[in-house]
Design brief:
Rossmann fold; 5 strands; globular; five-stranded parallel beta sheet; alpha/beta; 44% helix
Length: 193
């Protein structure tokens, strides 16, 4: 099983990274391989709204014309068995890097060719709020809408706040463990439980 983590956090040791690692720990107990991409360190431009009507090749062909890391990430996404999206919460919403990526993905997925390898793929979202932590549920709602629009099978969305991080790390690990039991290729694991 291949797991792709898209992190909207710049900090590989911060709260968002810890939350993603806990989920991965549960998944990798099932011998999953994983790839973690920190989107802020990648070159991902915002959508240019190519034509006057705000669309372009995205809606016509299911691809984006911008030459940056977007298409490479989408290729990795298509071959993964499960996607984990982890983001710090800023103003009750996704980080700017994850938002830029998902805005472009959403547009390409308006075309059936853009949805190839994405439609029905299991996805888990983790939204980690620092500060007062009140924005995590709204961030989860925003992420759910975008993921459903692109065609993912949204398996779970987990709001985390710094005040409950330690407790949520255990929840995230168990979520990963349970999720690994439901994915193709883990039938033997399920039989032995």
């Amino acid at each position: 099983m291949k797991v792709l983590v898209l992190s909207g956090s710049r900090n590989p040791n911060g709260q968002t990274a810890r939350a993603a690692r806990a989920l991965l720990q549960g998944l990798t107990n099932s011998k999953a391989s994983n790839d973690v991409l920190f989107l802020p360190s990648m070159h991902i431009e915002r959508c240019r709204q190519c034509r006057d009507d705000g669309w372009g090749k995205c809606v016509e062909e299911g691809r984006c014309v911008i030459q940056d890391d977007f298409s490479m990430i989408v290729d990795k996404l298509r071959v993964a068995d499960i996607i984990v999206l982890a983001t710090p919460v800023y103003w009750s919403d996704l980080s700017e890097s994850l938002r830029a990526f998902l805005d472009r993905l959403r547009r390409t997925c308006m075309h059936e060719q853009g949805r190839a390898g994405i439609k029905g793929k299991p996805a888990v979202g983790v939204c980690v709020a620092g500060g007062g932590g009140g924005g995590a549920p709204q961030c989860c709602r925003n992420m759910e809408w975008v993921l459903q629009t692109t065609g993912f099978d949204v398996v779970d969305l987990i709001p985390v706040r710094r005040q409950n991080l330690e407790a949520k790390l255990r929840v995230l690990e168990e979520t990963g463990r349970q999720l690994s039991l439901t994915l193709p290729g883990n039938e033997d694991t399920m039989r032995h439980k």
